[in-house]
Every structure is written in structure tokens, then in C-alpha cells.
């Protein structure tokens, strides 16, 4: 199942069709895309019996952030060994955790204003919590996941490295710097197409001159802290809540790790694809 936020309404997607949940359930479930996680088990049981192909055609450009108002957003830094190396850091012994503030969330096919000339890309698998809690055992980690989505941890490196030590969260929370979508894909849907523990994560840049470049090409099997491990390690400190997001980290290939460093420019288009989950697109424009 693929659930999404279509013009601020909760829908279930099937190819080019969208089934409006509030209408199809005769009001049993709210139109609010965020509210569904508090009733996740009840919702998935109901949704399993729906004919989504009976939904209406939709414009993908109207899709909003798949999870629009998460209670908490956790972002994991340096969670691939080669990315840690290109960033000049040792492989961490514990998860490196920061946040992307919720006001930075945006949809999967959007125009993003560059805040300057040091905006970087970071393709990431995003995890959505279905059943939260504290002190969750790693072996139970996958059972707490509502689904997976595609994200970009866009980063203003100037703001990120304002001081010493650096502070991450503000530089990663400009308007539009947290695109997530196009849908939240349940694990059974992912597993019908791929291995949930070994998903391809790819990021491609298209330039105004028509040239393209594969910027990142990684696999989630190379995560230092796996998804179940992140659920366990985070919940050992904080309570995970239904609808929380976890940006799980980015593979090697970011702009700041290149010599010389390379950053996004107006007119460029970034396409991020995760196997079995989906594709998101950002078109970049200048502040002017």
C-alpha cells in the first residue's frame, strides 16, 4: 500500500489513481494525512479491503510531503562508512543525531529556492514510525515501522558550519530543504519488489545544458546502523511516536566531499530514487 498527502488530504495511491480515505471510509478516518498514524493498525486493516483502482486520476505535482507534521524528525549523520570518510570523520560508535525542523518539509515534485551558493544534496531513505514506544528491542524494530519514503536532506553548508563545533539542524531546515514522498510505502509493498534491508539509493543531477550525472549510488545494506538498530538506539533515549520520521543517512557522493566541492545551481534538477519506494524531484531556482 502507498499512502500519500494529496492537496492536504489522505489518499491511497495505485498507479495514476488516488482513493480519498475520508470519502471511501464514510468519515471513519480523517482526511488529515498525519492523523492516520495514531490509528495505524485499524487503518491498515480497513485499507486492505479497498479497491484503490476505483479512485480518481490525480496530478503528482499536487502531492505534499508524505508525512506533513511529524511529532519528531530524527536525522542520522555519517551512517555510511564511505560518506563518513569523504566528510573527514571516523566511523561513529553511536548514531549521530540531529533534526530537520518540520517547517522545511515539502512535497516530492517541487521547486526549491537556493539560499546561496553552498547548498548540497543528500539522498536518504526515510522511515515512518507506526507503533512507537521506549526501549524497543532491535529484533522488534521492523514491526514498529509504518512504511518507507524517499527523502533529500538538502543542506546549506555555510549555515551548517557557522561555528566550531558545527551545528547541523538550522543549515538543513531552510524552506523546502526536506522533500519527502511521493508516498509512505508499507513494507509488504516494498518487499514485493526488493529486499527491505538492501535497497538501492540513487541521486541524479540534470543540468540546463542537457547533461546528467549520477551523484550518488549506494545501498542500504551498507548502513552502519540498520533501521532496526536505529529504532532500538533512539528509543533507548527518547520515546518514538506514531508518525515520527527518521532520515537514515546518505551514501557517499555529496558535494562537500568532492575536490573541489560542488554545490547546486539554479536551473539544475535533482532526481532521487529508492528501489521499491519511489522517486522525488527538485528543481532549483535562485533567490532572485
Automatic annotation (TrEMBL):
The keyword Protein biosynthesis does not apply. It comes from the Bacteria. Residues 73-284 form the Fumarylacetoacetase-like C-terminal domain. It holds the Pfam family FAA_hydrolase. InterPro entries: FAH, Fumarylacetoacetase-like_C, Fumarylacetoacetase_C_sf. Transmembrane segments: none annotated. Keywords: Hydrolase, Metal-binding. Belongs to the FAH family. This is Fumarylacetoacetate hydrolase family protein.
